[in-house]
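Z., the sequence and structure:
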Amino acid sequence: MSDNGAYMKKVLLQVEDLNAVIEKIKFEDFVDKDNIYLLGSSMGGVTVATCAVTHTDDIKGIILQYPAIFLNEQAYEIGAEYDVNGYKNPVLLLQGDSDNVVPDKYSIELCDYYNSIDKNHCRMIIYNGQPHVFTGKYKVIAAKDIYEFINS
């Protein structure tokens, strides 16, 4: 990848914004505080994975679709501020095997890293023939997989 530094700064700004949203909504009466999930795709996926590190107590689970995890330079640094294994709750990772933007090797590596501490931390589903954004019936299949994850 080219210069990820500028993108990492954007991710950290998004993390800051998402932290503010979480801090606000968890005190709202209409929010089921025991069932807050985050879903992020691509750059939003790395934002969710990075933000969740500081919200294990608030976030019941995260769903990452083709996350651009390489934009978090500390993702795999054990004990670092943004080490993704700082998040202890379930992770669902969805990825297409024909993704040219975020190749599946990044998601496989991420899921393996999550599972290096707890073998059941991350569940990964790879959709055959799917590009960076799921198409056709795979949009429905992904929605069903997300629904099942949230209701398990």
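The longest strand covers residues 91-96. The radius of gyration is 15 Å.

Let me know what you think.
H.
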